[in-house]
Amino acid sequence: MIQKIAKWETYHAKTVFIIALVLLIPAILGFIFTGVNYDILSYLPGDLESVQGEQVLDETFNSAGMAIVVVEDMPAKYTSALKEEIAKVEGVSSAVWIDDLAGTQVPAEILPDEIKEIFYSADESTTMMLVQFSSSGSSNETMQAIKDIKKLTNEKVLISGMSAITEDTKELTDSQAPIYIAVAIVLALVVMSLMMESWILPLVILVALGMAILYNMGTNIFLGEISFITQAIAAILQLGVTMDYSIFLMDRYIEERLIYEDRRDAMASAVVKSFTALAGSSLTTIFGFVALCFMQLSLGFDIGFVMAKGVVFGILMVILVLPAMILLFEKYINKYKHRNFIPKFDKLNGFVFRHKKVFVLIFVVLLIPAYFVQKNADVYYNMDKALPQDLVSIAGLNKLKSDFNMASTQFLIVDDTIPAGELMQMESEIEDLDGIASVLAYNTIVGPAIPDDIIPEDILSICKKDGKQMIMVNSEYGAASNELNAQIEQMSAIVKSHDPNALITGEGALTKDLITTTDTDFLVTSILSVAAIFVLIAICFKSFSLPILLVLSIEFAIWINLACATIMGTEISFVSPTVINCVQLGATVDYAILMTTRFREELQLGRSKKDAILNAANAAERSILQSASVFFVATFGVYLICDISLIKGICVLLARGSVVSMLVIVFFLTPMLYLCEGFINKTTFGWRSNGTQKANKRKLMKKGKVQKDA
């Protein structure tokens, strides 16, 4: 089947290329109309109490989308007028300030302390208002409403809260993503131009892979929406992990041109002979990404599915379209050739071979320390650390921390039938907890003695609705901190003692569940990715020993990569270790497979063990360097430009990981393959056999029985 397809596409190159171009139209439309989710917490499992609480806030109180507007050194009349303007913004369900309770004519100094402490800072120079939105916190309607609110404010007014942080994340990502994708492409083009022997070939390959990226991103429309993290890194990752497939095809085509007179037949043969190797190589990468799909945090499925799909599109492009493009533009590829800038590796490999036992000893000595050091990496979970501190939402959050002791806000949802006296006792117990800044409850606002039927509906609906009552608790502790997590546990115990069905939600509670969820996810995805790739390598090589050596080598590279972050004291996002473990393993284990495959081929040609490993290293390291270099510059370019530290952190880990994996293959795996070759031979089926056909082919080529000009 693949032979017929290869033959047809090489003899109908123009038709194939035109079809590929036409398919870009629906792909681009799909890309444009695919939604983007900027709220990481929305990916938490729906059975968590904090997530269920968010649903109640959204459906009952319209409070899942909430922002806090901070006004500094402004007259009360201005703040009241601003509140009225904000309340008129489309998408805003309510705006609540002190004048809703006491009126602007009441001086701040004579207000009850319970009210004053909520709405005013200690020195009374700063006040805040609560803004509720009619849609969920990360919806397009809420994002637009926040933009409209920003237009009403000046430099003395800040807007914060999770919805505001999400909107700033969206604005920053949308403005920077096209820039760093362009930078990644330019850097990849420069590196490829230097490492290939043509100025045009890299451009042809990048166009082909760019089309594959568009196909991948366009088909995301069937998912409805993808996360902003996936949107930001998918193109870069797909480019990095599929680049070596095109290099492999081109190298095979050059070999086949020595055999076939017609270049179309040579390309068809290259496609057929590359297919099995490319399919096997891509499966390791696909399995690495698929492992992410088993995370409880559905962000893993989002990234994993899109990237696995991207690898499939990359392979299809290399097998079905790139051959046609090379044939169409081969005249220009050959016309604009230059000398090879890739250095030879003879001296380096000779040095490694002479000191092979030393390098293996270093590997063994560093293995266990690297594992334990990387486990102590400093991980953050809150989004305010992932964004520049000069953003409006982050500046507002810092203002809330400094002036109101509000580092985070939780929401308690309790049964409205609980007697007022018992509720006041519960609120008092919560206020007595260490680190509680304030408690805003119905009793705090109107008092327990005032009947509900004389309270205005717009005030009543803020706290009471459909048999439930909402209580807002402000904490001095930041989200994801040990102090806040302990405080939430204590708060939960108090609330549950009064209402066993009560729910606790908010940024802190959601982040606490995020920590628990991702800790489990990291363990699960690590085991699945290692197990899947281990089995795949075992099947491909029919070996017991090779999966151990190859997977252990790349795992060591991953540990070294993460250990560098620990040693340098760099904070990394909660998603980074999981993504790196799956992506670096799946993408760079190909380097190890390439080296091992070439070593086996050399042995099967009858080479001595020493000649086989040196020849394999000299040949394979060229392709490894090309692939790792493109992966490095593409991801490192994003790191240099991106201002979102979550994306920036992932990209610098991927960039460093590609280099570390390459170095591990060169300095550690190569000598281990040599020293363990006897054991590998005993535990691998057909390790040294099946070389007759290749040997005969080389003999024929030496005798001049095949065409030698490309």
Percent of residues in helices comes to 55-70%
Radius of gyration equals 31 Å
Rounded mean pLDDT score = 87
Q: Extract low-pLDDT stretches.
A: 705-710
Structural class: alpha+beta
Number of helices: 26
Shape: elongated
SS elements, strand count: 13
Largest sheet: 5 strands, antiparallel
Describe the protein's architecture and organization.
The chain is an alpha+beta fold and 710 residues long. It contains 26 helices and 13 strands. Strands 8, 9, 10, 11 and 12 form a five-stranded antiparallel β-sheet that branches. Helix 2 runs antiparallel to helix 12 (299-335) and helix 14 (356-374) runs antiparallel to helix 24 (645-675). The radius of gyration is 31 Å and the shape is elongated. The chain starts with a helix and ends in an 8-residue tail after the last helix. Residues 705-710 have low confidence and may be disordered.
